[in-house]
Amino acid sequence: MGFQISLFFVLLLVFSTSILAQDLDDARLVIDANTTIAETDDNYICATIDWWPHDKCNYNQCPWNFSSVINLDLSHPFLANAIQAFKNLRLRLGGSLQDQVLYDVGNLKTPCKQFGKDKSGLFGFSKGCLHMKRWDELNKFFKRTGAVVTFGLNALHGRHHSGRGSWKGDWDSSNAHDFIKYTISKGYRIDSWEFGNELSGKGVGASVGAKQYGKDLIHLNSIIDELYTDIEPKPILLAPGGFYDKSWFEQLLQVSGPRVVNALTHHIYNLGPGNDHNLIKKILDPDHLNKISATFRNLSLTIRMNGPWASAWVGESGGAYNSGGPNVSDTFVDSFWYLDQLGMAAKYDTKVYCRQTFIGGNYGLLNASTFVPNPDFYSALLWHRLMGKGVLDVNGHRSSYLRSYAHCSKERVRTLFITHCLH
Ligand SMILES: *[C@@H]1O[C@H](CO)[C@@H](O)[C@H](O)[C@H]1NC(C)=O
Ligand SMILES: *[C@@H]1O[C@H](CO)[C@@H](O)[C@H](O)[C@H]1NC(C)=O
Ligand SMILES: *[C@@H]1O[C@H](CO)[C@@H](O)[C@H](O)[C@H]1NC(C)=O
Ligand SMILES: *[C@@H]1O[C@H](CO)[C@@H](O)[C@H](O)[C@H]1NC(C)=O
Ligand SMILES: *[C@@H]1O[C@H](CO)[C@@H](O)[C@H](O)[C@H]1NC(C)=O
């Protein structure tokens, strides 16, 4: 009987009065509150902190300021408040440069240097390094603010570039091993370790074959098992943190085998490049918004057929890529994309949805220079406070401009929540 208390959430995309008159007048929504069709994690809302330094620029604009894992101002009062507003906010630390990060611990033989511009480096930057002093500060901050942390490990370490973006050879686990060991010795709690960033399929910048990746995941899993012996809770293992590619993902699950990868993390940038002049048009176009459902559907099939022990997470999703769309990703209209994504992903049994970014770029929930929340911050917070884990089916006759998603409520009250109605 738990479902009689349900929360109803309506997102209206209405752009022309004719559509309003014609289709919304006879909209009929039927919510089946008897059964849930999917279930999210308790902490579905997640946001990322990236490694991009302040001199990462796109389209003659440098919107990152000091918002990276390495230099974010952890003492800024807005930052702690914004995280604490969620009570427990999931944060995923990762991004393009993560596969070039070294950890300054153990037998690291190279000096610990910061990222610098380097034309021959991946994404135009040299390798970077995380000092343990900074790691200590970060963990103190995460503990104080109640953040639930996913850390993305460097999955290219020890491999060699073999042409056309393809990287070959076994992963060198030594630096990650020492880093995890240090983390445990300090009592820092990591919810999940993630392996690699955008190396799946054809990759973005670099790629690694699924067979090799699966082998390395078995190895990483055994390191976690060994280092966390008698330590509870043991973090879960996430991979590959990249774009969905059917055969690559299938093979990864087949090679790594039962219960190695706990969740498949995939990335979504379904609005195209940040300088696309049609961003707003795409955000308000139901056909465009619907296209990505094929990815969610296929991924859930991939899991069911090849690795039913794993769940699906959106590990990084910012709408528009290359730092987001100026004046779009940081404004009200972006919530039409973001809230629709949260609803759609949950329907396909996605457990966690990580927004790129919590802070940094044009798509930050917080503005990277002022730390003031952007509109999507409040969308994330409303979702987190109102929407429960149980996803309900919504049927009936309605225009595709009316986006409707229903969940059991978090608080046990019946709520009607209408987010946007644009005439
Ligand atoms: C939900 O359950 C009630 C009570 O068991 C039943 O009367 C009703 O037909 C069910 N509704 C649907 C849509 O299955
Ligand atoms: C989903 O799977 C179908 C059937 O295999 C395929 O035709 C389609 O291209 C896939 N789409 C995506 C986005 O993976
Ligand atoms: C953003 O919008 C403001 C106000 O409409 C405008 O002044 C500014 O030039 C825009 N900036 C960009 C990068 O489009
Ligand atoms: C942050 O806010 C400032 C001041 O309002 C604005 O000029 C800037 O464009 C914003 N930056 C981003 C990345 O949204
Ligand atoms: C970052 O933001 C601050 C505050 O708005 C500004 O003073 C500073 O110049 C910015 N730095 C960079 C590298 O953009």
TrEMBL record:
SUPFAM superfamilies: (Trans)glycosidases (SSF51445). Gene3D superfamilies: Glycosidases (3.20.20.80). It is found in: Lysosome membrane; Secreted. Keywords: Glycoprotein, Hydrolase, Lysosome, Membrane, Secreted, Signal. One of its GO terms (molecular function) is beta-glucuronidase activity. It is a peripheral membrane protein. InterPro entries: GH, Glyco_hydro_79. Residues 1-21 form the signal peptide. One of its GO terms (cellular component) is extracellular region. Endoglycosidase which is a cell surface and extracellular matrix-degrading enzyme. Cleaves heparan sulfate proteoglycans (HSPGs) into heparan sulfate side chains and core proteoglycans. Belongs to the glycosyl hydrolase 79 family. This is Heparanase 1. It comes from Olea europaea subsp. europaea.
